[in-house]
Amino acid sequence: MHKDSPLSPFYQPSVMSEDRFRAMIGRSISRARYISSIISGTSYSDDDSDHGYSGGGGGGVYTSIASSPSSSGEPSAAPSSAPGPSSNGQSKVIPNDGDYLMELGIGTPPVKIVAIADTGSDLVWIQCKPCDSCYNQTDPIFDSTKSSTFDNSVSCNDTICLAILPSSSCGDNLLCEYMYGYGGGSITFGNLARETFTFSSGSNNASSSIPGIGFGCSHSSEGQFTPNVDGLIGLGGGAASLVRQLDSSIHGKFSYCLVPYAENTTSILNMGDKAVVNGPGVVTIPMTSGNYTFYMISLNSITIGNDTIPYTPDDTTNIIVDSGTTITYIPDFALTKVIDAVSKTINLNKTKDPQNYLSLCYSHSVKDPPYPFPNITFNFDNQLGHDQVSVVLTATQTFIQSTDDVICLAMDYSGKSDNIAIFGNVAQQNMHVGYDLHANVISMAPADCSKLSSS
């Protein structure tokens, strides 16, 4: 359920739609710049003022900022995958102001938590008691003393610690401690622990509990965290992520289907055998090599109507598929041509984005009849026997309301980080997206995510 829906328990009637949009895009810009700094190995600064943005909430991509100053960035050996009684697991996926949340249980007996689902990071963490300096959280903060399965004895030589902090330094007790920072200055730190995680099995309200999952027990979190979020679930490709830790149970497979922001409903994140994407329009795209946390595929061209725009940057054709970045980023050399091609097909009055973020906007009210915006097709390289495979994006996946009276193309470039390319979560709305980490492929198929069956 979207927290800004009147039906949602997180609804805040005093927050204007323009304010929600501003916060959402601000985080998106910050995240794109930070991802670019990780990939390029350059320093990150979030004090730029172009695009009308200066600082803010970050994006949910983590780096060690204290305990591993000399980390090489290479993946460590995966920690021992936690065994599970079932090869299937599910979580409810909840849209949340540009971020998507997932529900699961932690501890014994299980306590329900709601955390950001993030394919662009690896660390799993929630706020824990005692919380020396925690952000204000709606749910009760997790009390490990009430769980019979909590294990706080994770040492600095433990595989899960080495996976997160390859060059960690320990405290006096030799237990694994961490400090991780967001792109926009938000920080969380605490100690690593192990605990039992519980997921829905998707049938008859049954559940599946998996012991020994490594996670960050955060005792201090500062920055732009919202009260309805208990923490973050890293779903990236690194060794410490939830999906890598569950590998022996889910066979490297997970999928999600993101409902559009405006719909007052939830969807499903599947792990294991039920994560297979199939049906009309499904395409399978090989992932490329790159930073081990991020899921990258190779973009070949973008088609609008009769115009096909080659995508040939100097250094890379990789584009990151990311659930935590709102809009889609492509370099300026391609964005300029995309805007020209889209503009030729639209007979609406152009206007400036009142928020001063996005480059192509039109006067179009949320109360107006739907406009026939053009489809935008992303053509990806396919190493499985064909030249390319194509993902067709409709207006739901390519345009976003900046205000109640202005609609904008949900694509842009990230300022000075001009070579970064990210396939954001607006583009993934009403798309069933599946990851197979063993076959090293991503599958996508159009879907009505609000009706995706959990059976």
UniProtKB/TrEMBL annotation:
Q: Which GO terms describe its molecular function?
A: aspartic-type endopeptidase activity
Q: Which Gene3D superfamilies match?
A: Acid Proteases (2.40.70.10)
PROSITE patterns, per this entry?
ASP_PROTEASE, PEPTIDASE_A1
**Listed InterPro entries:** Aspartic_peptidase_A1, Aspartic_peptidase_AS, Pepsin-like_plant, PEPTIDASE_A1, Peptidase_aspartic_dom_sf, Plant_Aspart_Prot_A1, TAXi_C, TAXi_N
Q: Which SUPFAM superfamilies match?
A: Acid proteases (SSF50630)
Location of the region described as Disordered in the Swiss-Prot/TrEMBL record: 44-94
Q: What is the protein named?
A: Aspartic proteinase CDR1-like
Taxonomic source organism? Dioscorea cayennensis subsp. rotundata
Source gene?
LOC120279566
